[in-house]
Each structure stands twice: as structure tokens, then as C-alpha cells.
């Protein structure tokens, strides 16, 4: 009986971790679209990295600076939506890997949005005393170059 209870507790903890990580990833879009640099940066470890392919960030301060940048603020002023699909999460104790896809929708005209970018994100996360945080996030566009496919393969390599 105790083996069964232990097994159920372990399974419940894994499900809670997966849910918490999915919530963290899902919060990025609304936070970055609202232009809240401190809330976006708080998703990362203090020395966490974010590699978009065009932009290399290596700390919370760098992530906050990206949100404050003219380039990002211009997207917000025009109208944009960073939309993320559900992540596939693999939890291993206090570490996890997640892979998901995203689209950046940008307002192009008075009545519509256009897909500006479609990509893949590979995230490495760690648990700290207050919950999960991003240690590294790598994003690549689904542009046929193969770089996004490499991230997908890495995300599912268990």
C-alpha cells in the first residue's frame, strides 16, 4: 500500500511541476506584450540566458533591456501578440526541459494581423526555493534552415 501511495505522490508532483512550467512559459507572451520588463525578466534565473538567434541575452537585466528596447516597444505600439503553443515538458528532479512552438502576430492593418515569425523554443529550467525559473532559452525560426528541427530533436532527446 505504501508503494502505491508513494507512486501516486511522485506522479502528482510531476504533474504539478509540468503544470507550473507550462504556466511559466504561457505567461511570457502576455507579459512581454504588456511591456513589463521586470515581470518578464523574473521568469529567468539571475544569470539565465535567452538566445533568439538575433539577440543574445545572458541575465535578467539583459532580458529586461530587450523588453525596454525601441525595437520591442515599437512592436507593442503597433500591436502584437506573442502566442505560444503548449509545451512538451520533461521533468527530472529539480531540472526540466521544455519544447514549444510560437507565433509572433503583428498588426499590419486596421483590421488584421499577420504572422511575422513562427518558431521553436527549447527551454532548460531549474527549481529554486520559490518555484521554476528559466536557465536558458533558445529560439529559432521555422524557416527551413534546419536549426529549429535541431531544437525539436534536442527537446525530445530524453
Describe the structure.
With 158 residues, the protein is of the alpha+beta class. Helices cover 42% and strands 40% of the residues. It has one domain: Nuclear Transport Factor 2, Chain: A. The chain is built from five helices and seven strands. Residues 14-138 form the SnoaL-like domain.
Q: What is the end-to-end distance?
A: 30 Å
Look up the CATH topology. Nuclear Transport Factor 2, Chain: A
User: In the CATH hierarchy, what is the class?
Assistant: Alpha Beta
The residue ranges in which pLDDT falls below 50 over 5 or more consecutive positions are none
Please count the helical segments: 5
What is the mean pLDDT? 95
Pfam families: SnoaL_4
Protein name: Nuclear transport factor 2 family protein
InterPro entries: NTF2-like_dom_sf (IPR032710), SnoaL-like (IPR037401)
Domain SnoaL-like: 14-138
Task: For the structure shown, list the relevant keywords.
158 residues, alpha+beta, Nuclear Transport Factor 2, Chain: A, 7-stranded mixed β-sheet, 5 helices, 42% helix
Short characterization:
This protein has 158 residues and is α+β, with helices and mostly antiparallel strands. Helix content is 42%, strand content 40%. Strands 1, 2, 3, 4, 5, 6 and 7 form a seven-stranded mixed beta sheet that branches.
Chain-wise SSE layout:
Layout (H helix, E strand, L loop, with lengths): L1 H33 L2 H5 L2 E8 L4 E2 L2 H9 L1 H9 L1 E5 L3 E5 L2 E15 L2 E17 L2 E11 L5 H10 L2
Parallel strand pairs: 1-7
Antiparallel strand pairs: 1-2, 3-5, 4-5, 5-6, 6-7
